[in-house]
Write a structure and sequence with these properties.
With 207 residues, the protein is of the alpha/beta class. Helix content is 34%, strand content 24%. Helix 4 crosses helix 5.
Length: 207
């Protein structure tokens, strides 16, 4: 790994769905510890490009480089292993599980210990370090949209995300929640995490 290399590079990415060209020769370069705004109208291909980086779609052509080396991302599991986390516009949490169960879901645990019990101290510390105030033991279906977003961000960080992709994160947030999200993004950047913020609102990027 070369420390001077960008964290992520997308080179000449193409993607077609039947007769619709969603992406044509798209390139993007992202540094370390920055917020990168990805702006455009609805249907411009913003989410499609990031879904390729996250492994939900396969590109028809193009190259992805992570920390200076070419990588093959065939699934979200590949992307997560590299250190990419994504918070989608629609929540992807399991509604019947609690916050701590959602965050620990799929994480390895020592033998004879439950994943939730093993993960809980680290999850609590991570939640508190970013000033999140969500309850760990309440079922997700009982929580507001802004709280669910905090849980999804915590889950990505718990998985050691070096890059956090936020897809239209303010769609269901009120102004106070948007202000809190800005504080979280600044803390992430201060901690060295890179962020891609997908939006069609220029004001959000400027702030």
């Amino acid at each position: 790994m070369r420390e001077t290399a960008p964290l992520v590079e997308l080179r000449g990415v193409h993607k077609r769905f039947a007769d619709v060209v969603a992406l044509s020769d798209v390139s993007l370069q992202l540094g370390r510890g920055v917020v990168h705004g990805l702006l455009g109208e609805n249907g411009a291909g913003k989410s499609t490009l990031m879904n390729i980086l996250y492994g939900l779609y396969a590109p028809d052509a193009g190259e992805i480089r992570f920390e200076g080396r070419p990588v093959s991302i065939r699934s979200p599991a590949d992307s997560i292993r590299l250190g990419v986390g994504m918070v989608h516009q629609a929540p992807t949490l399991v509604e019947e599980l609690t916050a701590v169960e959602n965050i620990a879901l799929g994480a390895p645990a020592p033998a004879l210990r439950s994943p939730v019990r093993a993960a809980r101290p680290q999850i609590e510390a991570l939640r508190d370090s970013f000033g999140f105030d969500f309850p760990l033991d309440v079922r997700v279906r009982e929580l507001a949209a802004g709280v669910k977003q905090k849980i999804e961000i915590t889950r990505a960080l718990y998985r050691k995300a070096k890059l956090l992709i936020l897809d239209e994160p303010t769609t269901s947030l009120v102004e106070a929640e948007f202000r809190q999200l800005l504080l979280v993004l600044r803390r992430l950047v201060d901690a060295g995490t890179s962020v891609i913020l997908i939006t069609h609102k220029i004001r959000e990027i400027l702030e």
